Amino acid sequence: TLDLTCRRMPCFAKFAEMEEMVNMEAEINEVQPLLLSVTIGSTLQFYFIGEKCEILQDMNRHLEAILKEKRGLRKRLLKHRCQESLPIEATYHKSMVELLNEAVTFIEKLESHLQSVRSIPQVPHMMSNMDTTLSKTEVLMIELRELTEQILKWEELQKEVYSN
């Protein structure tokens, strides 16, 4: 009731108007950054659209130039490349065929050759691993022989027990 009576009094009317103005200013201050960010965003968007438009125009000019030279390009594409190379004498044809075969074989095996070259620094480590593996294998072979002998002895003992 106190609030209601205070509001009706003329002395508090100015206070209510001031409170309303402060609320409106707060709302404006909240909306202003959003409007600013939207404005900046749209400006940047137009800037990037302009850049993309320039790039597309450059591509368009390039394609137009290619289309103008279309006839010349077709001739160049249809023309055999061997006509531009140096002629080879007939006596060397067999050697060239052999050389091409060797080149193709080399290219096919190039990856395995490269892998071999890459593994050269690892050879000492691989050799030490092989030595340790060989040692372990020898130990296992000795243990296997001992077990075999023990099994044979046990088998003989079992035969003697069953025969008695």
UniProtKB/TrEMBL annotation:
GO terms for biological process: centrosome cycle; microtubule nucleation; spindle assembly. Coiled coil: none annotated. InterPro entries: HAUS2, HAUS2_metazoa. GO terms for cellular component: centrosome; HAUS complex; mitotic spindle microtubule. This is HAUS2 protein. It comes from Melospiza melodia (Song sparrow). The lineage of its organism: Eukaryota, Metazoa, Chordata, Craniata, Vertebrata. The gene is Haus2.
